[in-house]
Amino acid sequence: MTTVRTAIVIGGGIAGPVTALALHRAGITATVHEAYPATASGVGGIGGTLALAPNGVAALRTVGADEAVTATATPIDRSVMAVGRRRIDLPTLAGVPPLRVVHRAQLHRVLHDRAVAEGVAFAYGRRLVAVEQTDIGVTARFEDGSTATADVLVGADGIRSTVRGLIDPAAPGPRFTGLLSFEAVARHEVDAAPGTMTFAFGRRGYYLYWPEPGGGTRWGANLPQQRPMSLVEARAVPADQWLETLRASYGDDDPGRELMATSVADELQVVGSLQIMPPVPHWHRGRMVLVGDAAHAPSNSSGQGASLAIESGVQLARCLRDLPDVASAFDAYVRLRRNRVEKVAARAARINHAKAPGPVARTLMPLLMPLLVRTAMDPERTIAHEQRYVIDFDAPVTAEPALR
Description:
Elements: E1 6-10, H1 15-25, E2 29-34, H2 42-45, E3 49-52, H3 54-61, H4 66-72, E4 74-76, E5 78-83, E6 86-89, E7 99-103, H5 104-117, E8 121-124, E9 128-133, E10 138-142, E11 147-150, E12 152-155, H6 162-167, E13 175-186, E14 196-201, E15 206-211, E16 217-224, H7 231-236, H8 239-249, H9 256-261, E17 269-276, E18 284-285, E19 288-290, H10 305-322, H11 326-355, H12 359-374, H13 379-382, H14 384-387
Parallel strand pairs: 1-2, 1-12, 2-8, 5-14, 12-19
Antiparallel strand pairs: 3-7, 4-7, 5-6, 9-10, 10-11, 13-16, 13-17, 14-15, 15-16, 18-19
Helix pairs in contact: 1-5, 1-10, 3-4, 3-10, 10-11
């Protein structure tokens, strides 16, 4: 039985509220400390739409948030690959619920409200600057001069995590994928049934789209880019200038041309340079530990980033609940998670490479894609182990190497 009774959770985006909810269910009182003010758009508001895989929704079920999240999401039950004028149905995984797409801000709002309803406390305007550890606890010091003390501290503070640097000053930072991302809803109606997501390789860039409930077509575009841009840099460029760049890039594509032409600058989401986390050597030190993007952030090509973050929060709570000391709980948590998340990241990296094909690859793609769909894209081999993963929250965790 654990001796941990209280936790400080740094970060109020997605992983933070889920971790706090799971800790609450495990009998551990957690307070979420968020750097942004409560009314700032930064709390869950940065970024556009994200995907929740079936395993992510299953993990949300353990904290009672699955129904509220899926009610705000759009189900995707068919995927199509478009290469030039060809449309190729991608094989689907049998026996699993559909993928769900949801706006990050909506997901954050649902998770926050669920956590508050369960009694989880949130403190805003708390930017972490330092941590002090002892044998019996940990104290967080914030930029505003306030402090908080608990048994453990959880870094759920995203890809640019402060906690990661406090655990290991030599820890790697995020890496640029070579892609710049945008999103909007076009007035153009594509010839696709509701629930169909199309992945398209244009002449100059990759994009995807699906019919938006209520009308129009939601699209996301990944343009190849030579150098990374921070979100602040990318959003400093006028939106109408970005839209002109997109219209020039996709002007030869169908329906890319129509999607860009019928989108308006005021509604363009400049998501910025896509970044991933390389393997992080140390997920914990003393009484500090990482969850979510702070420890593992695969490319959005994986369709698993948010789902893995949710899973990690749930698994951490199980380990802290069942193991007798902090060190053994953190070790067990890493053994449960590292191999799984790094396999997903490796698969996503291969997809990223395909999103920016050279001229020769673009020429061969219409010929090779049908063969790849029949062979290399077998869902039972590539994604079944990811999407059918379900955490048994009530099962006890042990310190043995063979963990469940």
